Structure formats: structure tokens, C-alpha cells
């Protein structure tokens, strides 16, 4: 095992140094005025920054012996990913004509990587996570560019596919990792890890209205609709948790995932919804599909399909994102149909085709490229973690238990 640590020590620092040199060179040739003018308002950026770093950092602390790695590796991929995201978006959307990506947009893009990390939590080493971050950010921006260029999706809405892309990219990557042995009990939680994880959930919940509104012009509508959806999803989570438990007690795992479902479900439509009751219905449906989906997936689909999802990103982000995409299509039909009084069905069908096409393109790109990325991450060059060392801080950190 000493040779593993030696190779690991010789690879990680040099990769990080190389990436930082690349970022420094690119930023050196960027106009100072372009950077400062592209920066969004600090309060909005601060909210998203807190949500991504603090919220998701604690949200991933679900494993009893993987707390150090969950928070620290999340922080590492965020600070590297934001720099990478700024440059990648500049390339795909502006072709180096000017530097126009704000840090808020970079943080929103990196959320896809954080979500994907939840699926491979405890299995991927930092070297693999860094490579996954770089590949996923490039592919995610390619997907956004396709949606923007060919399917005419509004620029800001292309970023709202982040939950859908991150969840299914992460699941596809996780499918290529070896399964942990049946007797391994390190992939379970404790009351302490559950407490920290729900603390992260509360952080994400509080700042989610800023996340959904930071890139839109209709900020008031986005904030209010997101809050209503989150509130109803949280109440529904408590209700369903008691109803689906054999002894009628609340389950922390339900609150860990379902209270966020409303924010994910409404992410596509938050700026355009004109009645709060619509947002509340979406929040309720999001929480329902999360809790019921967790039961069905964990008992019926995950074992035969061998889906490995450490943090439950499929039913926390994937299923609500699918529901939100379908809801966006339905609301588009109702809104445009009412406005046109169903006289111009060809134009309405054209809009539906673009919405459905963007959804299908995003999820298929995530699955295909995630599968390929998973194969790449499991080559010997990237220092594969032995299965017996999954979910263990002691493999990376100086710890005492």
C-alpha cells in the first residue's frame, strides 16, 4: 500500500499545480475591465457561494467515516471547478471575443459536479474527482451550447439543466465503479453524520431562492415562487415521512432529500409562473416523487440494475428535475395555447418540440458521456481506490477514531 500513497502524493500536487498555471496564463491575458464588469451583485453571489460550499459540503456528510473527505474534496472541486467553468463558458459561448462569465454563473455550473460527486461519494479519490470535474464541466457547457444554438433555449435557462445533468452524469459514472462488498458497513450513516447532513440541507434550502433567481431578470417572481415550492415540499416531506414509516416516526433520510425537491422541480419555471398556487403544487409533487421514488428505486430498480448511488442524488435531484422539465412543457402548452387560443397549433408544437428536445438532449448527453467518463476514471493511471478502502477517511487523512 505504500507504493499507492507514493504514487498518489506524486500525482495530485502536480496536477493541481498544472491546472493553476493554465488558469493563471488565461486570466493574465484577460482584460481587467471585462472581469470586473461581468461580476454580478455581491449579495446574490454570496448566497450562491454559501449554498454551494457550506450547504453541499455538509449535505454530502452522510457517511460515518467519510466526513473529512466529503467536505474537503467538495471544497477542492468547487474552487478548481469555478475557475475552469469561467474559461470553458467563455470559449463555448463567446469564442474568446470577450470575457463575460460572472462567478455566479461559474458556481451554478459547478453545482452539476457537486451533485455528481454524491453518486460516487466514498469511491472516487481526489485525482479521479478532479478529472471528472474537468470533463463534466466541458461536456455540460457543450450540452448548454447545443441547447442554446440549435434548440433556442434562453441562455439563463440552459444553466437550470444543472440538476438533471449532474444527477444522471453522476449515476452513469458510478455504474462503472466496482460494487462494495456486502459485509462492508462503512457506507452507512450515524446520528452525528445525519445531523451534519441535514444541517447542509437546511443551508441549501435557505439559499435556494437566490440560486434560482441569480441569473434571471424576473427576480421577484423567481424568489417568491421558489420559496413557496420549497415550503410546501418541506411540509409534504414531514407528512409523507410519517405516513411511509412502519412506526409512524419521521425519518431523517426523507428530510435530507425531499425538502429540497420543490427547489429542483421549479428551477425551470420559477421566473415565469404568475400564480403562487402553481409553484406550491410543483413543490408538493416534487416531494412526493422524491420519497416514493426513493422507496421504489432502492427496493425495485437499484439492485437488478446495479445502480450505485451513495448520496441518493437520483431521487433527490434527478427525479424532481425530470418532473420540473415535464412541468415546464405543460405550462408552456397552457400559457401559449391560451394566448393563441389554439389557433396556431403548428407554432405551439414547435415550442414543445424544442423543450422536449432540450430535455432529451441533456439527459442523453449526461448518460453517454458519464458512462465514458466512468470508464476513463477506472484506468490504472488514475490510482483506483481498492474496494476495501471505500468510504474511509483514513485512506486520505490523518485521523483518529
What does this structure look like?
The chain crosses the membrane at residues 12-32, 44-63, 75-96, 129-147, 153-174, 195-211, 223-243, 277-298, 310-331, 351-379. Keywords: Membrane, Transmembrane, Transmembrane helix. This is RHL protein. This protein is an all-alpha fold. It is 72% helix and 0% strand. The protein has 15 helices and no strands. The protein has helices at residues 2-28, 32-38, 42-59, 67-94, 103-119, 126-149, 155-158, 162-174, 191-213, 219-244, 252-258, 261-265, 276-305, 313-340, 345-377. The longest helix has 33 residues, at 345-377. The chain is globular and about 65 Å long. The protein starts with a helix and ends in a 24-residue tail after the last helix. Mean pLDDT is 86; it is low at 95-100.
N- to C-terminal separation? 21 Å
Amount of helix? over 70%
Give me the Rg, rounded: 21 Å
Beta content comes to under 5%
Number of strands: 0
Main sheet record: none
Low-confidence stretches: 95-100
Kindly list the characteristics that best describe this protein.
401 residues; mainly alpha; 15 helices
Helices and strands, with pairings:
Layout: H1 2-28, H2 32-38, H3 42-59, H4 67-94, H5 103-119, H6 126-149, H7 155-158, H8 162-174, H9 191-213, H10 219-244, H11 252-258, H12 261-265, H13 276-305, H14 313-340, H15 345-377
Keywords: Membrane, Transmembrane, Transmembrane helix
Membrane topology: Multi-pass membrane protein
Main location: membrane
Amino acid at each position: 500500500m505504500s507504493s499507492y500513497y507514493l504514487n498518489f502524493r506524486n500525482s495530485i500536487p502536480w496536477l493541481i499545480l498544472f491546472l493553476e498555471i493554465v488558469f493563471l496564463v488565461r486570466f493574465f491575458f484577460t482584460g481587467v475591465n471585462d472581469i470586473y464588469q461581468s461580476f454580478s451583485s455581491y449579495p446574490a453571489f454570496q448566497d450562491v457561494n454559501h449554498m454551494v460550499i457550506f450547504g453541499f459540503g455538509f449535505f454530502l456528510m452522510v457517511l460515518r467515516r467519510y466526513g473529512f473527505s466529503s467536505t474537503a474534496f467538495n471544497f477542492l472541486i468547487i474552487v478548481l471547478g469555478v475557475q475552469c467553468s469561467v474559461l470553458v463558458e467563455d470559449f463555448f459561448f463567446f469564442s474568446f471575443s470577450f470575457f463575460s462569465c460572472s462567478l455566479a454563473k461559474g458556481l451554478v455550473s459547478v453545482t452539476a459536479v457537486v451533485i455528481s460527486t454524491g453518486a460516487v461519494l466514498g469511491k472516487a479519490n481526489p485525482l479521479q474527482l478532479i478529472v471528472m470535474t474537468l470533463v463534466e464541466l466541458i461536456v455540460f457547457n457543450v450540452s448548454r451550447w447545443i441547447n442554446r444554438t440549435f434548440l433556442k433555449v434562453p441562455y439563463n435557462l440552459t444553466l437550470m439543466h444543472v440538476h438533471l445533468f449532474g444527477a444522471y452524469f453522476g449515476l452513469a459514472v458510478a455504474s462503472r465503479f466496482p460494487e462494495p462488498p456486502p459485509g462492508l458497513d462503512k457506507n452507512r450513516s450515524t446520528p452525528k453524520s445525519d445531523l451534519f447532513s441535514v444541517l447542509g440541507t437546511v443551508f441549501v434550502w435557505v439559499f435556494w431562492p437566490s440560486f434560482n433567481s441569480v441569473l434571471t431578470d424576473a427576480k421577484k417572481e423567481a424568489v417568491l415562487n421558489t420559496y413557496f415550492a420549497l415550503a410546501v415540499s418541506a411540509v409534504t416531506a414531514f407528512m409523507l415521512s410519517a405516513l411511509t414509516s412502519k412506526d409512524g416516526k419521521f425519518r431523517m433520510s426523507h428530510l435530507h432529500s425531499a425538502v429540497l425537491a420543490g427547489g429542483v422541480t421549479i428551477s425551470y419555471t420559477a421566473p415565469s409562473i404568475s400564480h403562487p398556487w402553481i409553484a406550491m403544487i410543483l413543490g408538493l409533487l416534487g416531494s412526493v416523487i422524491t420519497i416514493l421514488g426513493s422507496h421504489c428505486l432502492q427496493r425495485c430498480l437499484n439492485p437488478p440494475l446495479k445502480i450505485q448511488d451513495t448520496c441518493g442524488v437520483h431521487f433527490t435531484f434527478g427525479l424532481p428535475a425530470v418532473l420540473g422539465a415535464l412541468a415546464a412543457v405543460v405550462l408552456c402548452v397552457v400559457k401559449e395555447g391560451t394566448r393563441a387560443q389554439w389557433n396556431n397549433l403548428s407554432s405551439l408544437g414547435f415550442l414543445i418540440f424544442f423543450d422536449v428536445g432540450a430535455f432529451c438532449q441533456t439527459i442523453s448527453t449526461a448518460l453517454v458521456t458519464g458512462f465514458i467518463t466512468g470508464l476513463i476514471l477506472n484506468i490504472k493511471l488514475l490510482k483506483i481506490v481498492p474496494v476495501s478502502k471505500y468510504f474511509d477517511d483514513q485512506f486520505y487523512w490523518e485521523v483518529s477514531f
